[in-house]
Structures are given as structure tokens and as C-alpha cells.
Amino acid sequence: xxxxxxxxxxxxxxxxxxxxxxxxxxxxxxxxxxxxxxxxxxxxxxxxxxxxxxxxxxxxxxxxxxxxxxxxxxxxxxxxxxxxxxxxxxxxxxxxxxxxxxxxxxxxxxxxxxxxxxxxxxxxxxxxxxxxxxxxxxxxxxxxxxxxxxxxxxxxxxxxxxxxxxxxxxxxxxxxxxxxxxxxxxxxxxxxxxxxxxxxxxxxxxxxxxxxxxxxxxxxxxxxxxxxxxxxxxxxxxxxxxxxxxxxxxxxxxxxxxxxxxxxxxxxxxxxxxxxxxxxxxxxxxxxxxxxxxxxxxxxxxxxxxxxxxxxxxxxxxxxxxxxxxxxxxxxxxxxxxxxxxxxxxxxxxxxxxxxxxxxxxxxxxxxxxxxxxxxxx
Length: 378
Hints:
About 40% of the residues lie in helices and about 20% in strands. It is of the alpha/beta class.
């Protein structure tokens, strides 16, 4: 079925197809319509789930952890200050290896108070232990949510998964989205099963303390599982393509990078604009390319190195700034390409939802050609 819906509605449709048993919800702009729509599905009976309206974002994730510990598929959603309010619970969920799926509507952080979209909220939590992916459009938001449940729940992974959508620019804009049939979703996503749950016949200890030696061992196994996500995403998207006929690029998606001299790296819904800018510069004789990061954790180091190996210079466009340093994405990219390219140009734009026009994106490429490095503010 094809529907004209928003990015938030697309996520809600994906969650309905995934059939979670528990949804814990607390409203915050611009995420609210996701859980509103899910509450309607539960009320009308099109989704058989327990909908828990909690008193805070911290409680929303805490309830999801409890449900996951009881052995059921769970979903929640948040945004911005709400994600930060969850920060304590984020590391609990990851350390407990609870495969919760959460949608985060990217939104600027206060102060100054702002409800519009940048990516400082989720990027501040890269070290929390969650898988993090960033959708470009509503169709991918739906598809990525289904993949999130599949990958997070694999026994070899069992890590919570955060699906990020740019606030308002993606959460509230409408486009035609292909909604799979329930039979297709069931063929892709098996019923939820996990050994990481309370079982009175096989008692186990959960939420325990561990000294330095055992603490490090737990974190190492967590990290090794996060690294395995690289291959599991590729396998999952291969299965997804066979069933649904749509294929994505794994952790990163390169566009016209094979012979590019100047490559821009970015993520999220600004990606279409970046491709358009690269195309227009190609028409002007500038060999421009674009690399879209679909996942920030695990980080696509190898994909980045492969995409930029023939380039003269690289820029990173991100809706984030680490005050006193650079943007978080730029630092990660520079770490991946440390060596022949040296320092990347770090373009900071879209903070507080500020518009990024094609002329500004073209300027990044031209600044790159002129040899500019460091931070450029759009």
C-alpha cells in the first residue's frame, strides 16, 4: 500500500508491522505524533500491544527495559532534552543488552531553547553503547525501523537500536511511502525470542555490579557485538531487498566518489541536497562526490577510507558542534582517514534548524578546492 504520510507516521507504520508487545511513551516535540499514532493503533485494535503512558522520558526507557527483561519486543521514542533525560537509562539499556528499538527525532538542545532540528542530541550519546542510524527520508525511516528490530534482536548482537530522524524536516514533512503488507514484514522479522530475560526455570542475575576486571570483560563483549553489526546490517539489508525490493547501502552510501577530487561527507535528510550540489558542480567541471553516513555506530571506517582514497580533499557537513573543538562527526571521520588527507574541512550548519541551501553546500566544495581546512560555519 502506498500512502502520503510524514516521517513520524512512517515510523509508526513500521512499528505496527513489527508487532511489539509493549510501547512506552512520553510526548515531546517533534516526536509526539509517533506515539500518538501508535496509541491510536492500539485503541482501534490494529496493534495488539500494551501502551504505557509514563511520567517522563527516563521512565519511558526504564519501562522498556523492564518489558525487555520480561522477554517481549519493545519500542519507545523521544527527542532532544528527552533523550538527555534518558542518558542514565541509555547506558543501562545498552549494558543490559536489551534489544530495544527507539526512534529519536533529532532536535536542538537548550539553551537557547529551540524546537527545531539539529543532531546535537543523538551525537552527544554516541558513547552510550547503542547502535545509531540516520534516515534520509520517510521511506527509509520505515524500512530502517524494521531492520532495527531485526538486527537488534539477533542473538549475536542484542544491542538497543536508535533510529534518528531530522526534526520537522523529516518527521513532519509528507511524501509517498510504500507500506509493506503484514505478511511481508512477518517474513522478514521473526517472532521475538531472547535468552536475555527473566526465566524462573533458569535463574540469572541482572543489573549487577562488577569490579574492574569483569567490568572490562563485559564492555569488551559489548564492543565486539557492536562490531559484528557491520556484517549483520549488510546481511539484513540483503534479506530486506529480496522481500521488499528496496536496497540500501549498508553503513555508508557513496555517490559519484569513484573519480571525485573533492568529497563531502554528511548524514540525514540534507543528503539529497548534497547530491544535487555535487551534480551541479560536476556540470561546472568540478569533480565532486558525496558520501552519506547511514550509521554512526558502528562507525563505517573502512567504507569511508575506501570512498575517499582517490580524493584531494574532504569536507564534513554536520548539524553539530563540540564547543571548543570540532563537530563530532568530523572528528570521527578524521580518525578514520588519518594519514594522506590530513585535516578535513568541517562545515557546521543546520544548528537550531537553520536552513542549509544548495548555494551553501556548493560553497563547501569550493572552499575545499581553495584549500580551506578547519571549521567553516554556514
